[in-house]
Amino acid sequence: MTVIHAATGSNLKDEVERMAISVFQHKALRNDFYDRWTTRSLPAEEVRVFAIEYLSRTIRTSEMVALSVVNTVDRTARVECVKNLFSEYGGGNPEKVHLTLLENFLTDLLGRVSGRPVTIDELYREPPLTSTRSFSSGQRELFTSGDQRVVQGALLAQEWLAYSMMVRLYEGVRNYKSYYSSEEEFHERCEYFYVHIGEAEKEHRIQAVESASQVCADLTDLARVQVGFDGFLDLTVEYWRGVVARMREAGAPARGLETRAHAAAVPAARVR
């Protein structure tokens, strides 16, 4: 939990920013999932788990931003949330809606590593993990809170995690470049990440600080923002913990086959 320093008036924005940057040291970003995802190319079974669970988690993102508009009373704070929502929906271009870009990316990547076409309907039909459902229900509870300060705290955590999450996910995707015919093809397929790593998430972070600051008139307000902030981070920790555990389970049979194949190949090589 972030320690709140004594502050009043304009200094409260500094406290909100201090709260925001605390995500960089949190287990929501420093965890086994990211270690696994960024350091190796994983078998199709594990990539499929990631695709299903990440899609199930992310499908609610724009909805949560919309709820932050509805459940925030302060007009200036609402304006910042609306800017965020407009960006999520591709700036008015249906083809650039962030969820659409994600769907295109996931089906393409999973199809390549699986060696067969994968449809988005196929992924949506898969039931998510209990831990993923818990994340979604907890997220909704935070964003529908009757306390706009809690709502803004949750939005602050969501947006400050998002940029760093995108960077780490993209670094992991680079492990699959061999599945693409050229550098150009790989980068063309990664538009979802470039939209976020570019301006979108940077702007969202600024907007989230502004909107959270607008609902903070004193330290009591700041403490309530902290409740929403910490709540979202805690949900995220458990979400990634569930995902990586399921990935390990799914990948175990594939790793067993590789081990047996290698063991069989060694004696054969010696005979030759």
From TrEMBL:
Q: Per UniProt, which keywords does this protein have?
A: Oxidoreductase
- The source's superkingdom equals Bacteria
| GO MF terms, alphabetically ordered | oxidoreductase activity
Task: State the name under which the record lists this protein.
Answer: Uncharacterized protein
Specify the species: Parafrankia colletiae
Query: What is the phylogenetic placement of the source species in the record?
Result: Bacteria, Bacillati, Actinomycetota, Actinomycetes, Frankiales
